[in-house]
Amino acid sequence: MPTSSLISAATDKNITAPIAKKIPHKMEIHNHHRVDNYYWMRDDERSDEAILAHLNDENNYADAMLAEQKSLQESLFDELKARIVKDDNTVPEKDGKYWYHSEINGEQEYSNYYRSTSFSGENKTLLLDVNDRAKDHEFYDLGDLSISPNDQLMTISEDIDSRRIYTIYFKDLNKSSESEDAYLADILIETEGQIVWANDNKTVFYVKKDLETLLGTQVYRHKLGSPQSDDVLVYEEDDHSFYMSLDKSRDDSQIYICLHATESTHYLALSADEPDGEFAELFEYQEQHEYHADKMGEHFYIVTNFQAKNFRLMKVAIGQVHDINNWQEVIPHREDVLLEGIELFQNFTVVTEREHGQIRFIVHTTQGENAGYQYPLSFDDPCYFACLDDNPEPKSTTARLYYSSLTTPGSLFEFDLATGERKQLKQQKVLGDFTKEDYQSERLFITARDGIEVPISIVYRTDTFQKDGTNPLLQYGYGAYGITIDPDFSSQTLSLLDRGFVYVIAHVRGSEMLGREWYETGKMAHKQNTFNDFIDVTKALVEQGYGAKDKIFASGGSAGGLLMGAVVNQAPELYLGIGAHVPFLDVLTTMLDESIPLTTNEYDEWGNPNEVQAYQSILAYSPIDNISAQHYPNILVTTGLHDSQVQYFEPMKWVAKMRELKTDDNLLLFKTDMDAGHGGASGRFKSLNEKALEMSFFISLLPK
């Protein structure tokens, strides 16, 4: 393989990679022995001087090895930043008697929030200056912003440590935004960040975090004017396989505690007019029953997988919801269509479906002389992403949808629900010389080794793509939790496309791109299908001329980082460079340790390795357990020290073991953001540095 200038320059410097000390840590279960020489790298407090020193050594080593491409990285950052509109705002949306929107200006990293008494902006009032709130923090995340039913009070939740532990503040909107006493004395700490208001405008409910597992386990009721120590615990969940959230029904009459495990759902409900009452089951809990319930008027509407793998829609009167035998079918189960969700309006229901991997929306008229009439909302591109935007007014006769494709910038449409007529309210502006017609997208199906067809989405610049096996190609994948990565526009990707890259999203098993079966055949004992799909897509794209065999790159983050770790163990020869971001790499050790945040909630995704079959299944692919003495691609690994989802020590240990065993001189670089967490750097410009880093790494690896 030809040598890139980056590898040659880095090798000439004769810089030595950090070598971690080895302290054997023995582990035994199911009569199987493992030794982890780098277990010592775990520090829950993130204060161990030896660990921090090693992370800093890795950062310094990466910077030194990448010094030759620093100017390219800076150029790419400037390029990415130059496409972003400095002064921008969202389209105002009506909620109650006010219109709400956000604005961002100049070099600001964050949006500020406003409301007005009309769409045109009359009586415009600043609700929250986020840049002022964030100015003293290296990391800042505004988790949630909510308005009381009477429009007089606002809550905001903030995370300043990147651990997704939020503090909630209350603000009196009758007072000037700059007023010292605009914020109430009420402060709620250690929360999930979400607030649901009761209809009395003085009672709120929130979820308290378990600071060890970082799961929300308790729901509290807070009365304005009282200290948090007086808050009443209204529900506690002892089963840590559930995530907990709060919600309010579409008609604002019910407050829900929503419990979601990977394969099960449970709702508890309370009248929003009686906040001092007790939450009660909406209906009896059943294992492996997944659903979403909502209420409009006298009926509940339930999207359920009960006797329906791809889900169906049911309707039931309020007083009969407890008995599943009373539920009436509105939309039946279909083998080839996944029912993803619904949005209720007084006279319409908008249904989100997916068929053959493509999302679509069906409008059902539910009231009036046209009741029963239904029709699809139409779009143009061969593959695209679309979703319902915020539609806070159930009485509305219009609905807003967000739309984007690999060649179409993000667009906000408003549909007349009675006629289907659409108008574009806004489209993301891309500064510079971007022209949609310069790019082409495709949807293909690649046959995997077991005969299953895997959908992929492709985009390239038409004047640089010849389909002759000469283009560099970047393949992205995720493939877990049933999360579908739809083909969405990214102005950042243009920097690769304009340099001749082909960009591919491999919709591998583990998502729900092709329905529920697509997810179930890509998890637990079937997880190897995810890796096979990704590898087989790469091989096919090379064979079909979409990419040059010596210019193939791959990238993934979190569970997609696990995908990268497995792929480089199983087919390292296919790739010139790999980007693995906040990667989940030590699957077996993590899933055996219930003290690590989120572990128990993941059993239905990866399996519980306390059971021997699940242990063997995970052991077969767990990236850190399958590193061997072989050649590996050039690899860039990034993480955040304060990551609450995938702990920093997973990639840290993986890199140390990789350095120990790999037999090549290819680059292995590890960058840790000492201030960030799972989502990376905060702010619209700061985060571009991470993207520019990966892009420059890939571009600099291209053979000369």
Automatic annotation (TrEMBL):
<dbReference type="Pfam" id="PF02897">
    <property type="entry name" value="Peptidase_S9_N"/>
</dbReference>
<comment type="similarity">
    <text>Belongs to the peptidase S9A family.</text>
</comment>
<dbReference type="InterPro" id="IPR051543">
    <property type="entry name" value="Serine_Peptidase_S9A"/>
</dbReference>
<dbReference type="GO" id="GO:0006508">
    <property type="term" value="P:proteolysis"/>
</dbReference>
<keyword id="KW-0378">Hydrolase</keyword>
<dbReference type="InterPro" id="IPR002470">
    <property type="entry name" value="Peptidase_S9A"/>
</dbReference>
<dbReference type="InterPro" id="IPR029058">
    <property type="entry name" value="AB_hydrolase_fold"/>
</dbReference>
<dbReference type="Pfam" id="PF00326">
    <property type="entry name" value="Peptidase_S9"/>
</dbReference>
<dbReference type="InterPro" id="IPR001375">
    <property type="entry name" value="Peptidase_S9_cat"/>
</dbReference>
<dbReference type="InterPro" id="IPR023302">
    <property type="entry name" value="Pept_S9A_N"/>
</dbReference>
<keyword id="KW-0645">Protease</keyword>
<protein>
    <submittedName>
        <fullName>S9 family peptidase</fullName>
    </submittedName>
</protein>
<keyword id="KW-0720">Serine protease</keyword>
<feature type="domain" description="Peptidase S9A N-terminal">
    <location>
        <begin position="18"/>
        <end position="428"/>
    </location>
</feature>
<dbReference type="GO" id="GO:0004252">
    <property type="term" value="F:serine-type endopeptidase activity"/>
</dbReference>
<feature type="domain" description="Peptidase S9 prolyl oligopeptidase catalytic">
    <location>
        <begin position="488"/>
        <end position="700"/>
    </location>
</feature>
